[in-house]
Structures are given as C-alpha cells and as structure tokens.
C-alpha cells in the first residue's frame, strides 16, 4: 500500500528522528542521578516531536487538497480554496485533536479522528493523549524553567513521557495516513 501523503510522511519520519536523537543523547549522558543540565534534552525532544506532528498535519492537508483539486475545472475556485487553507494553517500553531480533525474533515473530506485507534488505544483516548502532549509541549516551550534552591524539582518531561510521545505520534501518523489513502472502488 502506498502512502496517501508521501511527502508529508517522509518529512514526519525525518523530523521525528530529531526527537529520537535527543532521547538517545539523554540516555547516553544519563547517570544516577542524572545531571540537571541533561533535562533540557527531554524538553527539547518533546518540543521537536510535537513540531513533527504539526508539520505532518500542515503538509498532509496541503498534499491531500492538491490531490482533490486536480479535478477542479475552475482555477479561481481552486486558488480560493488553497488560500483559505493557507490562512487556516497560518493560525493553526497547535494542532489539537479537535483542530486537526476539523481541518482534515473540511479539506480532505475524511474524519480522521474515527481512525485514531490501534492496539488497545481507542479514538477518544488518542484524542486526549494528543491534547495532553500538546499541552505539555506548551508548558515547556512557553515558560522558562526556574532553578530553585532546595531539593531537586520534578522534571517537566520524564524520559518515559518523551519515549511514549514519540511512539504515540508515529502510530497516530500511520493511522492518519491510512485514513487519507484513496479507497479502491
């Protein structure tokens, strides 16, 4: 089976590797207890992982829309729809489950959220997990980490959080790509 959105999928696979590399660097530098300066690798890894998701959503919407517009005989209408999508993407910034499913429904004609299920993960929990990871990304990217005296602080992103987020996003992209694949008649 070929990908419905080959460029978006290839870009995601390349981008998610940045997060995987940061996790590998964290593991390589880790000791017991881990040096506090290594914690930045997990935060940066989560930010890059969620950026890979955001890029996937944007690129796949553009690719699928172009496929759909091939059959449009009026270039002015096609340009209007492209312009509208570019406006939507410029305001996206945080592709939550609700925003992503709405955009895919509007521009790809597919309710991808119904397909967000795999190996014990149902669509509702997939939406919640995506939104939780996006919230965590927002927490670590929009607020500087404060260093305080006293006992060590709880890390905003645990190693397991980053590992699970990467695994989750890879699966989410896989099922989204599958949902967007043209169906044989």
Write a brief structural summary.
This protein is mainly alpha-helical and 185 residues long. The protein is built from six helices and no strands. Helix content is 68%, strand content 0%.
SSE topology:
Blueprint: H1 6-29, H2 39-69, H3 75-90, H4 97-108, H5 123-142, H6 159-180
Helix pairs in contact: 1-2, 1-6, 2-3, 2-4, 2-5, 2-6, 5-6
Descriptive overview:
Helix 2 crosses helix 5. The protein has one domain. Helix content is 68%, strand content 0%. The chain has helices at 6-29, 39-69, 75-90, 97-108, 123-142, 159-180. With 185 residues, it is mostly helical.
- The residue fraction in helices comes out at 55-70%
| Count of alpha and pi helical runs | 6
Domain unit count = 1
Structural class of the helix and strand makeup?
A: mainly alpha
Distance between the termini: 15 Å
Give start-end ranges of low-pLDDT stretches. none
Features:
single chain, 185 residues, mainly alpha, 6 helices, 0% strand, elongated
